[in-house]
Amino acid sequence: MEIDLVIAGAGLFGLTMAERSARELGLRVLVVERRDHIGGNAHSEIEPSTGIEIHTYGTHVFHTSNERVWEYVNRFTAFTPYLHRVFSVFKGRVYSMPINLGTICEYFERVLSPGQARALVAEQAAEFPDPANLEEKAISQVGRPLYEALIRGYTAKQWQTSPRDLPPEIIGRLPVRYTFDDRYFDDTHQGLPVDGYAAWLERMADHPRIEIRLGTDFFDLDAAGAVPVVYTGPLDRYFGYAEGALTWRTLDYEIEVAPTGDFQGTAVMNYADEDVPHTRVHEFRHLHPERGHPDDRTVIMREYSRFAGAGDEPYYPIGTPADRARLQAYRKRARSEPGVFFGGRLGTYKYLDMHTAVASALTMYDNRIRPHFATGRR
Ligand code: FDA
Predict the structure, then answer these.
(1) Which residues, 6+ apart, have CB-to-CB distance to 77 below 8 Å?
(2) Which Pfam families does the record cross-reference, listed alphabetically (predicted)?
(3) Which of 1, 44, 79, 150 places its Cα 20 to 30 Å from the Cα of 73?
(4) Does the interface ipTM go beyond 0.90?
(5) Burial of 113 (0-12, 13-18, 19+ CB in 10 A)
(6) Closest ligand 1 atom number to CA of residue 216
């Protein structure tokens, strides 16, 4: 078919853009995806020996407080009422995460009112009024005892570096709740697609004007340059790394079918001890308690974190001062790249949740793609 718009990348950003452009504007859209599946990092697949749906790139729970996004995604799938809870193991004990009143009472082994807990943490956090590194910044938010138990080892493993040697800018605000609310996400809506991520994402892409070409790298496409492009691949790669490579952390996953009906009693368990090499264990059956699963086998996935080298999957942008300077330079180049719209987590070098990827695609569609085609500039 003739093409009006090329989209590089079939993640949630690219699929939202493809769906809107084909359905609402009637454009003929070619989506090229270098992997052998659509959905980007939200992809899931069935582990054949157990029938359990596994999230190939780590546990994905949909959550949003954005009503427009919630209405939009519900056109393609219904969601289960699953509420995500995360726990962390440290020195043989288990704590609820993110840090909440339950975590604080459990750690200090006493009953504390919200006011008492707040006062205790404030006193312990007063040590570094002007933090010079990640450790000091974390202590200035949660105090030294909780930092040393729940943040230090986990962070050191994530970054393969002592938090004392990491810049303070790479962490944001660590959430601390002075209630017993132990939900991991506090958005209005959360859940999992009832019949799985793959089914949801396939329905988004299912339109006669959308052609998906899997196993195809955008840079191998002859048509590039002839029609407008929405590019959701890595920003630095688009410009041939001319300003230097943006740095990322990557994850390695080790999958095991364990001979038990329940390995850890929850979907995600963090491991905060530094001498345990993995950072998390995912057990996917717990994401769908409403489904029938085998009672003698389960699928677990151990997660290991490290700096991404060339050729590794980029997962989390690092955002050092050098990265930020490079990003500014790439943004400047991107602004003067005719007919190319940069979006998604890789194309903007930003961590995006699924709902923010959808929201930013809808916004780009409204503000840039629809006007671009409406004014006949194709
Ligand atoms: P995404 O990376 O999904 O898609 C981009 C696509 O472009 C990829 O498929 C890639 O292969 C392709 N591509 C790149 N270069 C290309 C080229 N040159 N040619 C062709 N194709 C190319 N979010 C959430 O809401 N809840 C959660 O629980 C989680 N959990 C979670 C866990 C982990 C471990 C990570 C790393 C991330 C999450 N997320 C999440 C975030 C979520 O996975 C993700 O940010 C969004 O799905 C972003 O969608 P994008 O389309 O922007 O990127």
Answers:
(1) 193, 194, 195, 199, 200, 203
(2) GLF, NAD_binding_8
(3) 1
(4) yes
(5) exposed
(6) 20
Q: For strand 29-32 and strand 5-8, is the pairing parallel, antiparallel, or unpaired? A: parallel
Q: pLDDT for 240-295, tens place per residue?
A: 999 999 999 999 999 999 999 999 999 999 999 999 999 999 999 999 999 999 99
Quick check: is 202 catalytic?
A: no
Q: Is 4 helix (H, G, I), strand (E, B) or coil?
A: coil
| Strand partners for 147 | none
Which residue in 253, 353, 368, 370 is the catalytic one?
Answer: 353
What DSSP designation does 24 have? Answer: T
Contact 99, 146 (CB under 8 A): yes
Q: Model's pTM, two decimal places? A: 0.95
Give nearest CA residue, ligand 1 atom 46: 354
For 55-66, b where at least 16 C-beta lie within 10 A, e where not — what string? Answer: bbeebbbbbbeb
pLDDT in tens, 336-361: 998 999 999 999 999 999 999 999 99
